Amino acid sequence: MQRYFVSAEQFSETAVMITGDDARHIGKVMRGKPGDKLIVSDGNSREALVAIESIEAGEVRAIVVEPLVMDHEARLNVTVAQSLPKGDKMETVIQRCTEIGAVSFVPFLSERTIVQYDAKKEGKRLERWRKIAKEAAEQSHRNRIPTVEQPLSWKGLLSSFEDYDLVCYCYEKEDGKQLRDVLGPFVEQLAPDTGANVLIVVGPEGGFSEKETSQADEAGAISVGLGKRILRAETAGMAALTCVLYESGEMGGM
Description:
Layout: E1 3-5, E2 15-19, H1 20-29, E3 37-41, E4 47-56, E5 59-67, E6 76-83, H2 89-100, E7 104-108, H3 119-139, E8 147-148, H4 154-160, E9 166-170, H5 179-188, E10 196-202, H6 210-218, E11 222-224, H7 233-247
Parallel strand pairs: 1-3, 6-7, 6-10, 7-8, 9-10, 9-11
Antiparallel strand pairs: 2-5, 3-4, 4-5
Helix pairs in contact: 2-3, 2-7, 5-7
């Protein structure tokens, strides 16, 4: 069943108003008609099964049929910080990691980032990234849309580490501590049904410099490996996120 997100103002106790691109999608792509049922969420605390009452130009009105329990989110709030990769790879990271269960994304610039950052163009890119996150959240039946933050400098990212309960950065030269070595003890010490904020940091195509790894260590992050194989920049975040959610029991782990 198709799922859509609306603002809290569009969601009352008895009715929902869907506008914009979503309304056009329902009317023109899905060929919606009165009586058709949809799932609608405000992305925060309310979700419901609704039935279309009317479809007009740019606006769909639906009646609430049944409130739904919002239980599709992971126990751990995992943020993926990704050094800006080349081309449209960031779009792939956001789409796939949203499907897997990331709660937010933090693009950042590091020493070996190849992409030339242009603040004037970044507004449009950020808008597109957020649209991709929304569409992926709808497709994968998430209860919430992951946030996509403004790109940070490396220094800015380091200063954010204190906001998380665990920060791991994926380092291809780490030959000792693997991600699971860190995740196991971390998850075990959490009380049952208790969440935590986890940050996974992934470097650019050229990896992190030794200076950056030292700075990350000093800021409280833990260097972890992802096995014996070298992963692409756009693959590492997906692999690490999956490991975190598996180890916390989201995918049949502990």
